[in-house]
Structures are given as C-alpha cells and as structure tokens.
Specification:
The protein has strands spanning 14-16, 20-26, 35-41, 50-52, 56-63, 66-71, 85-89, 94-97, 102-107, 112-119, 127-129. It is mostly beta strands. It has one domain: Jelly Rolls (Sandwich). Strands 1-2-3-10-5-8 form a six-stranded antiparallel β-sheet, with no helix packed on it. Strands 7-6-9 form a three-stranded antiparallel β-sheet, with no helix packed on it.
C-alpha cells in the first residue's frame, strides 16, 4: 500500500455558507473513506442548522468553549424540539454526529476551533442547509 501525505495546513482557509471558516486538510477522491478539515467559528457566532446525508461527522475540539446542538428529527423546531441534544464542548472533546442528524455549533466568548472528520469523506452533494431562517 502506498502512503500519502497531505499538507493541509498550507491549504487556503475559506468562509463556508453555514457560518464558519474551513481549511481542508485532507479531502481526496483517492482516499474516499475519510476527510479532515479544520473549522473555526468566530467568538459569539453559531453555524446554521445543517445535516450531512450518508456521512458521519466527528468534531475534535482543539480550542475554545462552545455548544453543539444535534437532533435526529427530520422536521423540527429548534426552539421547541424535545429530542434535541445540547452539549457544552471544550478542548479535547470529541462529538460524534450520526449521518443525517441536524446539527449546529456555537462559540462562546472566544473562537471555537475544531477538526471536522467525515466518514466517508465530505461531499458537498451530501450537505443540506435545514436552518429555519433560510
């Protein structure tokens, strides 16, 4: 088996539509099982509600304090949904978000930096914005 080295830290950081900065560290069609991106949510901000179809995502928190909200309901009211899990997160935490689950993440008083590890690799065709404020 051949090994590969991805020098992701030299990749350009871009603003992503859900409300955070993304730097792709590894997202290669030759490695379809997994992708890794560094995400950065500005202090006091939160991402839009979204989901990834057929993709499990893991947040590996590197820096900052925040909150992650996850729901398994296909249609939901984020203000009222009793099945929504709201969890405080910080450095060293790993959050596993099942494929198809609604999700958003918020940063508290400083920016929140985490790795987003997707299996299989992130594909924009599997991304769906489900924020009620569309």
């Amino acid at each position: 088996m051949n090994h590969r080295i991805h020098r992701g830290t030299s990749a350009k950081e871009t603003w992503f539509q859900e409300g955070c900065w993304i730097q792709e560290w590894s997202n290669d069609p030759n490695d379809p099982e997994c992708s890794i991106a560094r995400a950065r949510v500005p202090a006091g901000a939160r991402t839009r509600w979204h989901r990834l179809h057929d993709t499990t995502e893991r947040y590996v928190v590197l820096q900052g304090q925040g909150r992650v909200d996850v729901t398994l309901e296909a249609e939901f009211d984020p203000a009222l949904d009793p099945k929504m899990a709201r969890t405080e997160i910080g450095p060293g935490d790993v959050v596993v978000i099942p494929a198809g689950a609604g999700q958003r993440v918020a940063a508290h008083d400083e920016e929140l930096v985490f790795l987003a590890v997707c299996t299989p690799r992130f594909d924009p065709a599997r991304y769906e914005d489900i924020d009620p404020d569309r």
